[in-house]
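Minutes, structural biology subgroup

Action item carried over from last meeting: produce the structure token record for Ribonuclease 3 (Methylacidiphilum fumariolicum). EB confirmed the sequence was re-checked against the source entry. Recorded below for completeness.
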Amino acid sequence: MYLAELEERLGHTFRNNQLLEEALTHPSYFVESMKTTGKDFQRLEFLGDAVLGLAITEKLYEIFPSFDEGKLTKLRAKLVSRKVLSPLSSSLGIGKYLRLGKGEEKNQGRTKPSNLANALESVIGALYLDGGWEKTKSFVFQLFSPLFLELHKDPSAFLEYENSKGLLQEFLQKKGMELPVYRIVMESGEAHNKWYEVEVLWKNQVLGKGSGKSKKEAELRAAKEAFEKLISQTPIDLIQES
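Output recorded by EB:
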């Protein structure tokens, strides 16, 4: 069977092969083909999203007993984001097995982060229906284990990065200072592969710089650099000017 390799990576041999095929079927497959019967992965994606969220929630609750609801929610949101799910999906080779329409195939649909993330969720949904909760939870824990280990070592740094713009703004407000301004200093690359460089300024002074594949990512990195400088260097000149 052509999906045997994927089943091996999932650690499960499907009793209902149609479930796994459905989990790998992009909506474009039926739109652009002559097939009139069959299902795409959207319903399984919906189910898998919920199953994944529960598994991640259980693990975070276990390894961070002192964290409140707010911190746990932020960690979970990051772990189930497209930015995380897409490379995990790639590591399983899911893109290779996707059933795509011709147009989606030409548009590099097998490597699109959105397709990969959605397909991983749909595969998790299929695994849950075919193998049950314990099997699915075990798979999710194993797949995410490197990330859990990384978070367990330094969760505060992770949370600070995700909320670095908020931390910077709060710091300046407490000092009675004006809010920072973010400025794009460079934008390069094709439409599907952009790269941004951003500066964060206070009264025309550059507090930090950051870069990334999106404006949001670049701004977060710039804010993180600025915040770390401010709390470590205690810039008296800035405070006095305010």
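Discussion: The radius of gyration is 22 Å.
Next step: EB to file the record with the rest of the batch.
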